[in-house]
Write the structure tokens for this entry.
Amino acid sequence: MRPLGRYGRHVPPHHPQHERKDLIPLPTVKRDPRWDNAKFLLILLVVLGHAIERGCEYYGYDRSLFLFIYSFHMPAFLFISGLFSKRTVQADKYNWKKLLPYVLVCLVLGFLRDLSIHIRKPEHGFSFYNQNKISWFMLALFASYSIAWLLRKYPPKYVFPATIVVGLAVGYVPFISEGFSLSRIIVFFPFFYAGYMLDRNRFAEFLDKKAVRAGGAFVFLLWFVICVVFEKHVYLLRRLFTGQNNYDEIPNALGPAEFLYRGLAYLISAVVILGFFTLVPRLSVPHMTELGARTLSVYFWHLPVLDVIIHMDWAVDFIHQSFWYHLLLSVVLMFALTYLFSWKPFTVPVNALLDPWRLLEKLRPKRGKASE
């Protein structure tokens, strides 16, 4: 039997596609529950990170936990997206039907976020330009896929180092953090591209090695301890881990060598992400694996609702009691919102936004009926 091409078509043995050596091999289609488990744990951290942010101005432990979470959770999401991007990135034609809906989700999510703020602050307006709070991730996904597709014919061994250099250099641009999530797109793109470069089956085998699992777990826990014990010294990295600030906005700057801070942030994020993956269950786990496939719905809905809840008078009083009261409230909200927004009534609208073409096809009148 002749081999299948990238789109499922049979191609001749001497077709140029067989001679392409620069393409990264496509992985097998078999679904690995590890990545759904990872996404479930990461979306829990996304919700928790947003819930505890309010307490960062009051409690050192909140700052420690916030820094720990933000050092790896969104880069890890982009890395996983990169792992599963190969078919789209290596396609000869730009898959605009898949990628443009990311911008649509970004717009709707940005509107919901602005609306939630407008409810408690009527003076707050609506803006597409400022996408730095929550909807930036969808814009970053769109940009990452698009940039990787444009660079698909260039050797990854050259492209990847170049993306890191650009990520280090962008911090010197004074206006880069002002809008359209440009800073975050550029700073976090190396994580997406790293995922694109790797074969996820081989990467999974690497993670399963005993030495890697032991070392990864140690590094992950060590970084958590550092964030707690040395919070006052490492918290300055917060602005680097969020990816949205230029070097002028970072305290204790190193002068012309400010890029070293971001280099350190890149290194920490990379090893902590690796450590996190070594701790993720490899086999299917009830609820965890299933809900891990619905994380985008949780990401879409949680912050507008969370923003309203944590600014209610009772929640503000609860937060001001102590760090432990605030942590308890945050953990309860983390699980409640994650499970709530994984339900079908919330996943269906998000899936419709991600595939509006199907809805348009259903709404389009059939030729027979139209002629009548």
